[in-house]
């Protein structure tokens, strides 16, 4: 079977104008071509203007976004500093609270120690007072006993001296009588005490 022959399609003038071949085109066709090119040019300019506007919008949006991002970063840095400062203040407050708690605990322990010392002091003072009162009672009792003993001894000595005095007067009067001298002639009367007139151990001579 013989191969088919290729058929060559003849291009029209309109197709030739669309492909850029303007040779042999009429004035009307050229005007149409120019109009078409101007429309395409206007479309391209509109598209370029649109793209320029979009690019400006994108750039403006990027600038706004970048500024907002920088503001957010600055805000985050400020927040970080605030958090650090708050943490530092918190740590200081914790230390102060711990310090205050230690001071409060020390004061409480000091108060307990003072109370304990006061109680011990009061107990010791009470014991000393009791010992003092007991010792003073013993001393008063001893002094009272000694006073009674001294008074009794003095009374005994006074009685002994008085008895000796009375015995001496009796001996004296006996001697006067023995020598025949009346007592009235002496010019005084020997004083006899009110103490017992019992003998004091003196012997009257015969």
UniProtKB/TrEMBL annotation:
Residues 27-138 form a coiled coil. InterPro entries: GAS8. Keywords: Coiled coil. One of its GO terms (cellular component) is Golgi apparatus. Residues 1-24 are annotated as: Disordered. One of its GO terms (biological process) is cell motility. The keyword Coiled coil applies. This is Growth arrest-specific protein 8. It comes from Tetrabaena socialis.
């Amino acid at each position: 079977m013989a191969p088919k022959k290729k058929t060559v399609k003849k291009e029209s003038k309109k197709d030739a104008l669309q492909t850029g071949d303007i040779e042999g085109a009429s004035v009307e066709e050229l005007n149409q071509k120019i109009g078409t090119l101007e429309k395409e040019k206007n479309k391209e300019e509109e598209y370029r203007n649109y793209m320029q506007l979009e690019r400006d919008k994108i750039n403006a949006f990027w600038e706004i976004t970048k500024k907002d991002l920088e503001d957010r970063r600055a805000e985050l840095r400020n927040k970080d500093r605030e958090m650090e400062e708050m943490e530092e203040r918190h740590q200081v407050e914790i230390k102060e609270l711990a310090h205050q708690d230690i001071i409060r605990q020390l004061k409480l322990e000091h108060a307990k120690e003072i109370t304990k010392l006061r109680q011990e002091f009061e107990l010791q003072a009470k014991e000393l007072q009791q010992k003092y009162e007991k010792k003073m009672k013993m001393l008063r009792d001893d002094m009272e006993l000694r006073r009674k003993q001294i008074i009794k001894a003095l009374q005994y000595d006074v009685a002994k001296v008085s008895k000796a005095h009375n015995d001496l007067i009796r001996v004296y009067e006996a001697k006067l009588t023995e020598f025949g001298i009346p007592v009235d002639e002496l010019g005084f009367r020997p004083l006899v005490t009110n103490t017992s007139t019992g003998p004091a151990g003196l012997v009257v001579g015969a």
